Amino acid sequence: MEKLTVDHLLGIEDLSSEDIQLIFKTADNFKEVINRPIKKVPSLRDVTIVNLFFENSTRTRISFELAEKRLSADVVNFSASGSSVSKGETLIDTVNNILSMKVDMVVMRHPSPGAHQFLSKHIDATIINAGDGTHEHPTQALLDTFSMRDKVGELKGKKVVIVGDIMHSRVALSNIHALKKLGAEVMLCGPTTLMPKHIESLGVVIEHDIKKALKWCDIANILRIQLERQETKYFPTLREYSNMYGVTTELLEEIGRDDIIIMHPGPINRGIEISSEVADSKNAIILDQVENGVAIRMAILYLLAGKRG
Amino acid sequence: MNEKPRLLIDKERLDLIINRLCCQLIECHSDLKNTAILGIQPRGSYFSDRIVKRLKEMDPNLDLNYGKIDPTFYRDDFRTKDEPIIPSSTEFDFEIDNKHLILIDDVFYTGRTVRSALDAIHDFGRPSKVNLLVLINRRFSKELPIQPDYVGERVDSIASEKVIVEWTETHGEDKVLLYRENI
Question: Which residues span the domain enclosing A69?
Answer without folding.
Answer: 12-136+290-308
